[in-house]
Structures are given as structure tokens and as C-alpha cells.
């Protein structure tokens, strides 16, 4: 995940002590003066971003009262800075500026939730921090084991268990310990978020809801409609995968399947039923060739005594072989790539961080030695390489071309890493002339469909639910009901036990309490294949797309570096 601060910040230049421009200030239309202003502002922005990021990093990697207080103070200072810079920005009329400069002003003018009053801002900070803390510190008991955390304990259980009742217990208790506890805070959160949206204005553009602010960065007015249209085009393929999986589950659990043809959400190998590839190992009949070597190379990684450090070094080498840079010295010194061995708590959800210098980039991840985390590492390092490619850009442009691009770059690399050919190349999937490669490739393509294609409805639902809630089309009394209506309608999954409005199941997904827009992942799941197809047209001409491995292809790497460097 790319942890970036959405809204830009700029410095206070000519300002009275009350934070308002003096009465004799006039609107500035001179573009040369505006360029001078932007140059200075971008330098100061980097300082403010660093302060904010350091405070967030401190809390995310060591959750305690001291770091929480530091994070809260940093957020309050950030909000105050934003308010002042918004006033200063309004001294300029950038309507007729060159597009390069105009877009910078557009970004600077949007200050998001920093537009809230001091009282509302403190409330917003409090509820968002409480929700993230609830999520990141949740622990449950399943059967005779206690103090189980989501990562890696519950994720491993959901991925590997074949026990219907144990899966059900983990599914229910996780939601009781996470989402259910944040419902009231979430209602406060989105009401304040909508209030902030109405206080933002970019020239003639007004915002009504918090998601209007999020979607502005796409620079596509009909992004909601385009996303829905893309999903509609993919649904016929998804429905075939759904029917195949349901048929296999009916045989595995003949007395447990609903009559409405949905799939109970706890049976798909993932806590959120968003990716289904794990059921190739747990549900009989899903893997068409179970006697062949598994595509998941976790056991081989453990047999070869892989470590988190070795997994990160392997990922780095992949990028270097494409012509990208090595990770910086500060990356290796400051990244947190494993869960602390002492009692310190941290946010385990993997994320990549840009600290707005030329050499300080980090990854935070509670790495487990398995194939899933090997793929995640390549994904997160893709963010880092993207950061490094555009670090010479003005601070306001140090972000992806759109939110989906950033997610797609890492996923693009993972498409090569996960191929049987590449896994064989790095010694994790042993293949020789006796192996039926046609069958191996069928296994691989099925796993890709279960992970990538099956994700698309979920990738849409998370934000579709928020759009409906933020707009007021869904009452606060029907939050959970609407969540399951959407999941049934688009994904064909259902809750395995009765749910009510005492529950808040959306909050059991990280991106809901942490306010991370989600259609970026939907878009990335499409973009990554478009990028992959384009890059495979260089050194891999004539190779079937599902066999393409761009490892070591400098020409493809140079094209990808160019795209990343151009950035926003």
C-alpha cells in the first residue's frame, strides 16, 4: 500500500498574525511571481511532509501513549499549517497559468480535512486514531489458542484451515474485536469528513462529500461511472469462477451452502473473501492437478531457510536487474521488515513510505516467510522504486499519476515473480523435463484467476459502500445491511451467521478505519495487466503472456523507469 498524504501543504508567506491576508493584498495573476512562489513552497512542503510522516511512522511502528501523543500533535500542527497556506493560495488567480503550474495550484488549494475548525479537527483526529488502534491491536481466541493477531495468525488460519467451524469462529470473532467496536466512531468520522469537504473549494469546483475529495486526484469527473462500467465488463468472467468454486464447496460442505446460491464469506481462504487462491490447497477439486508441485512455494522457502532480509534482497535484485536503483542505505537502516521481538505493538499492514528527501524511503511490514509475503515485498518495493524515480519532481508532484498507477507498478512486477518460470529460475519451484508444463501453467492461470479476477467485485464494493454512505443514500441505521446487500449483489457472498446493525463488518477491513480510498486497487488490477502486456512486447516477444517474465529485460525496465519518472 502507498502511504501518501493526500493533500498538499505550502508555507505562509505574507500573512498577518491572525492568519488572514492583509486588506491591501490584491489577487496575483503574474505567472512569474507565481513560479517563484511555487519554488519556495515546494521546498517548505517537503519539510512539513517529513514532520508528519516521521510522527506517523513513530506511532505505526511502536504503538504506545508517547508516540500517539506525538502523532496527534503532529496532525494538529499539520492542520494549522494547511489552514494558513489555504488563505495564502487564494491570493493567486491561476486560471490562465500554464498547465504545469495551474495543476500545482489546484493541488495546493485542496486541504481536505484540515479545513475543519480546531474543535472538529481534534475530534476527527481522535476518532480516526481510535479506529486504527482498535484494528491494529485486536486479538482473539480461536478454539484453544488465544492472543491471535490478524497478521500472521488469523490470516494463516483462514488460508490453511479446512475446518468449517474453526473458520467460522475466527471470522465472527475478528469482526467482534475490530469493526463492531468502531461503529459509533465511524459515523462521527464520515459526518466530519463531509463537513470538511464542503469547506474545500478549488476555483469553481465544490465538494459535497469526503469521497469527492478522494476522487479529485483522479482528474476524471466520471470515475465512479467508469469503475462501474469496467466491473460490468468483467462480471461474466467472475460469474464463471464463482460458479466453479461454489460447485466445489457444495461437495466439500454439502449441508452448509445457502439456497440463494451465494458463498459463505468465511470459506474462500481469506478473512475478507477478496482473494480465493488459497482454496486450491484446502477445497478438494479446485486444484485440477493436485499431484503436481504446488504453485505456492512457501514450503520450499522454509526448507531453504529463507529470512525476511533474504526476501527483501531478492526483491531488490529483481529491480536492479531491470535497471532500477538499489535501495538506499537509509532504507535498510530505517525500514521495519519484521514484527518486533519484544512486546511493542505495531501496525502490521504492509506499507511503503516516502519521507520527502532524496534518500529516505522505508517499508513497514510484519514479514512472514511465505510466498504471499514474497509477492507483497515486490509490490511494496515497487512503490519505493516509483518514489525514487520521481523524487526530483516538485514536492506537490511527488505522487503517482493517479492512485491506481502506484498500486499497479508493484503488482506488475509480481506478475513476473509469480510465474512458474521465474520461481524455477530462483530455485523455488523445481521443474525438469518430466514435468508437464501445460498442466503447471493451467494451475498457475487458475490461481491467478482466483486471486486477481475474484478480487474485482470486492475492489469495487469497498468504495461503492462508502460512496453510498457518505452521500446519505444509506442511513446510518443501515450501514451493515447495505454492506451485505452489495456483497451479495456484486460478489455473490453472504455472511455465514446472521448480522445486524450492532455489527459493523466494513470496519473489519483495514482501509475502512484508516480512510484509504480503495478503487485504486480495483484500477491497479486492470492496469497491471495492460502494463505487463506492453512490457512483454520487448524482450519477451512471442512468449504467451501468462509465461512472460521480464526479469533482466533492460529495455522493458527502461520503459517502465521512463513512465515512473514522468509521474504526475
Automatic annotation (TrEMBL):
<dbReference type="GO" id="GO:0046872">
    <property type="term" value="F:metal ion binding"/>
</dbReference>
<feature type="binding site">
    <location>
        <position position="383"/>
    </location>
    <ligand>
        <name>Zn(2+) 2</name>
    </ligand>
</feature>
<keyword id="KW-0378">Hydrolase</keyword>
<feature type="active site" description="Proton donor 1">
    <location>
        <position position="511"/>
    </location>
</feature>
<keyword id="KW-0482">Metalloprotease</keyword>
<keyword id="KW-0862">Zinc</keyword>
<keyword id="KW-0645">Protease</keyword>
<dbReference type="GO" id="GO:0004180">
    <property type="term" value="F:carboxypeptidase activity"/>
</dbReference>
<feature type="signal peptide">
    <location>
        <begin position="1"/>
        <end position="19"/>
    </location>
</feature>
<dbReference type="InterPro" id="IPR001548">
    <property type="entry name" value="Peptidase_M2"/>
</dbReference>
<feature type="active site" description="Proton acceptor 1">
    <location>
        <position position="380"/>
    </location>
</feature>
<feature type="binding site">
    <location>
        <position position="383"/>
    </location>
    <ligand>
        <name>Zn(2+) 1</name>
    </ligand>
</feature>
<feature type="binding site">
    <location>
        <position position="379"/>
    </location>
    <ligand>
        <name>Zn(2+) 2</name>
    </ligand>
</feature>
<feature type="disulfide bond">
    <location>
        <begin position="348"/>
        <end position="366"/>
    </location>
</feature>
<feature type="binding site">
    <location>
        <position position="379"/>
    </location>
    <ligand>
        <name>Zn(2+) 1</name>
    </ligand>
</feature>
<feature type="binding site">
    <location>
        <position position="407"/>
    </location>
    <ligand>
        <name>Zn(2+) 1</name>
    </ligand>
</feature>
<keyword id="KW-0479">Metal-binding</keyword>
<dbReference type="GO" id="GO:0006508">
    <property type="term" value="P:proteolysis"/>
</dbReference>
<protein>
    <recommendedName>
        <fullName>Angiotensin-converting enzyme</fullName>
        <ecNumber>3.4.-.-</ecNumber>
    </recommendedName>
</protein>
<dbReference type="Pfam" id="PF01401">
    <property type="entry name" value="Peptidase_M2"/>
</dbReference>
<feature type="binding site">
    <location>
        <position position="407"/>
    </location>
    <ligand>
        <name>Zn(2+) 2</name>
    </ligand>
</feature>
<keyword id="KW-1015">Disulfide bond</keyword>
<keyword id="KW-0325">Glycoprotein</keyword>
<dbReference type="GO" id="GO:0008241">
    <property type="term" value="F:peptidyl-dipeptidase activity"/>
</dbReference>
<comment type="similarity">
    <text>Belongs to the peptidase M2 family.</text>
</comment>
<keyword id="KW-0732">Signal</keyword>
<feature type="binding site">
    <location>
        <position position="520"/>
    </location>
    <ligand>
        <name>chloride</name>
    </ligand>
</feature>
<feature type="active site" description="Proton acceptor 2">
    <location>
        <position position="380"/>
    </location>
</feature>
<dbReference type="GO" id="GO:0005886">
    <property type="term" value="C:plasma membrane"/>
</dbReference>
<dbReference type="GO" id="GO:0008237">
    <property type="term" value="F:metallopeptidase activity"/>
</dbReference>
<feature type="disulfide bond">
    <location>
        <begin position="536"/>
        <end position="548"/>
    </location>
</feature>
<feature type="active site" description="Proton donor 2">
    <location>
        <position position="511"/>
    </location>
</feature>
<keyword id="KW-0121">Carboxypeptidase</keyword>
Amino acid at each position: 500500500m502507498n502511504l501518501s498524504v493526500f493533500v498538499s501543504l505550502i508555507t505562509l508567506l505574507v500573512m498577518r498574525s491572525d492568519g488572514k491576508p492583509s486588506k491591501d493584498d490584491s489577487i496575483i495573476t503574474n505567472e512569474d511571481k507565481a513560479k517563484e512562489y511555487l519554488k519556495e513552497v515546494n521546498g517548505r512542503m517537503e519539510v512539513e511532509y517529513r514532520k508528519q510522516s516521521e510522527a506517523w511512522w513513530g506511532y505505526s511502528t511502536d504503538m504506545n501513549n508517547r508516540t500517539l501523543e506525538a502523532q496527534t500533535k503532529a496532525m494538529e500542527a499539520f492542520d494549522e499549517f494547511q489552514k494558513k497556506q489555504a488563505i495564502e493560495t487564494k491570493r493567486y488567480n491561476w486560471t490562465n497559468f500554464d498547465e504545469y503550474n495551474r495543476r500545482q495550484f489546484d493541488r495546493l488549494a485542496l486541504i481536505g480535512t484540515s479545513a475543519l475548525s480546531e474543535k472538529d479537527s481534534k475530534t476527527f483526529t481522535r476518532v480516526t486514531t481510535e479506529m486504527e488502534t482498535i484494528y491494529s491491536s485486536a486479538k482473539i481466541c480461536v478454539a484453544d489458542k488465544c492472543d491471535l493477531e490478524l497478521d500472521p495468525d488469523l490470516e494463516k488460519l483462514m488460508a490453511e484451515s479446512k475446518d468449517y467451524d474453526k473458520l467460522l469462529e475466527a471470522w465472527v470473532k475478528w469482526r467482534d474485536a475490530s469493526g463492531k467496536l468502531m461503529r459509533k466512531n465511524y459515523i462521527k468520522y464520515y459526518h466530519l469528513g463531509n463537513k470538511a469537504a464542503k469547506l474545500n473549494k478549488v476555483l469553481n469546483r465544490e465538494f459535497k462529500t469526503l469521497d469527492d475529495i478522494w476522487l479529485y486526484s483522479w482528474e476524471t469527473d466520471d470515475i465512479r461511472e467508469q469503475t462501474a462500467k469496467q466491473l460490468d465488463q468483467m462480471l461474466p468472467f467472475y460469474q464463471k469462477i464463482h460458479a466453479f468454486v461454489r460447485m466445489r464447496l457444495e461437495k466439500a460442505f454439502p449441508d452448509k451452502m445457502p439456497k440463494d446460491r451465494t458463498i459463505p464469506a468465511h470459506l474462500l481462504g481469506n478473512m475478507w473473501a477478496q482473494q480465493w487462491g488459497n482454496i486450491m490447497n484446502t477445497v478438494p477439486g479446485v486444484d485440477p492437478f493436485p499431484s503436481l508441485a504446488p504453485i505456492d512455494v512457501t514450503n520450499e522457502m522454509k526448507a531453504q531457510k529463507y529470512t525476511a532480509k533474504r526476501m527483501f534482497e531478492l526483491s531488490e535484485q529483481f529491480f536492479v536487474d531491470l535497471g532500477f536503483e538499489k535501495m538506499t542505505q537509509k532504507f535498510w537502516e530505517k525500514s521495519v521488515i519484521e514484527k518486533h521481538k519484544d512486546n511493542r505493538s505495531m501496525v502490521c499492514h504492509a506499507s511503503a513510505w516516502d519521507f520527502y528527501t532524496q534518500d529516505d524511503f522505508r517499508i513497514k511490514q510484519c514479514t512472514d516467510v511465505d510466498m504471499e509475503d514474497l509477492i507483497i515485498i515486490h509490490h511494496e518495493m515497487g512503490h519505493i522504486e516509483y518514489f525514487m524515480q520521481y523524487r526530483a519532481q516538485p514536492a506537490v508532484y511527488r505522487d503517482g499519476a493517479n492512485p491506481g498507477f502506484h498500486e499497479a507498478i508493484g503488482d506488475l512486477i509480481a506478475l513476473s515473480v509469480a510465474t512458474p518460470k521465474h520461481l524455477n529460475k530462483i530455485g523455488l519451484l523445481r521443474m525438469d523435463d518430466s514435468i508437464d508444463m501445460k498442466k503447471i501453467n493451467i494451475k498457475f492461470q487458475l490461481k491467478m484467476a482466483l486471486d486477481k479476477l475474484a478480487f474485482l467485485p470486492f475492489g469495487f464494493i469497498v468504495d461503492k459502500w462508502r460512496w453510498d454512505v457518505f452521500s446519505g443514500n444509506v442511513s446510518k441505521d443501515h450501514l451493515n445491511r447495505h454492506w451485505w446487500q452489495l456483497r451479495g449483489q456484486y460478489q455473490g457472498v453472504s455472511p455465514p451467521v446472521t448480522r445486524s446493525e450492532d455489527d459493523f463488518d466494513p470496519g473489519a477491513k483495514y482501509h475502512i478505519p484508516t480512510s484509504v480510498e480503495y478503487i485504486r486497487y480495483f484500477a491497479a488490477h486492470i492496469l497491471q495487466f495492460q502494463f505487463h502486456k506492453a512490457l512483454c512486447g520487448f524482450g519477451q516477444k512471442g512468449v504467451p503472456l501468462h509465461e512472460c517474465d521480464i526479469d533482466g529485460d533492460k529495455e522493458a525496465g527502461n520503459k517502465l523507469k521512463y513512465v515512473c519518472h514522468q509521474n504526475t
